[in-house]
Amino acid sequence: MNKIKGNKEFFLLLLFCLGYFTLVGPPRAILMKKRLERSATGELYGEPIWVVLMVELAIRGSMFILLAVGFELLLGNEVFETVYGDEILVGIMVCGIVHVLAYYIGLVIIATKNKNIGMIFYRLGRNVAYSLFMGLLSVSGVLFYQYVNQIKIIKVDIVMILEIIFVIFIIIGVIETILKASKTASTIEL
C-alpha cells in the first residue's frame, strides 16, 4: 500500500474510493488480471478477463448497496424520499453499468484489434457515464437545497436541469474524446 504524502494524495485517494464504491469510477479488472498472472495464485488465476470483471462488479455492487442503505439510514426516510434518493441511486448505478460496459467493450474486446478505436469507444462511454453522473449530482444538490429551504420545485424542472447538465458535459466529453483520441485515458491503468 502506498503512503499518503500530502493533502493532494489524500484527496485523490478519497476521490478514487468514492468513485470505486459508487460504481462511477473505472473497473480495475485488467490491472487485477495482470497481477494475478504475475502471482500465479488465487481463485481467479487463469480465469478470463470477463470473469474477473464480473467478480469485481459483484463486489463493487455489494459495497454500493451497503453505502446506499447507510445513506438512506443517515438521511431518514422522509428526506430520502423528498430528494428522490432511490431514483438518484438507480441513476448512479446506471452510470456505473455504462462505464463498465464501455470498459469491457472498448478495452477488452475492441482494443485487442485496434487500440485507438477501443480507446475512443471507452472514452465516449466513460464520458457518457460521467455526464449522467454530473447531471444527477446537480439534481441532488438542487433537491437537497429545495428540502432545506422548503422551496417547491416541480419534477419537470428537475428533469430539465438533469438534461441541460447532461448535454453540457456530453459536449465537453465528445470534445475531450476527439482531442485525446490517440492517448490512453488517465482513468485506467493498462
Concise overview:
Helices cover 76% and strands 0% of the residues. It has 190 residues and is an all-alpha fold. The chain has one domain.
Count up the domains: 1
Q: Hey, roughly how much beta strand do the residues contain?
A: under 5%
Q: Tell me the number of helical segments per DSSP (H or I, 4 or more residues long).
A: 7
Overall average residue pLDDT = 85
- What value does the Rg take, in angstroms? 18 Å
Q: Distance between the terminal alpha carbons, to the nearest Å? A: 19 Å
Oligomeric state as shown: single chain
Shape: globular
Q: Would you count the extended β strands for me? A: 0
| Share of helix, binned | over 70%
Uncertain parts: none
Summarize the SSE layout with pairings.
Blueprint: H1 7-21, H2 29-39, H3 49-75, H4 77-82, H5 85-110, H6 115-149, H7 155-179
Helix pairs in contact: 2-3, 3-5, 5-6, 6-7
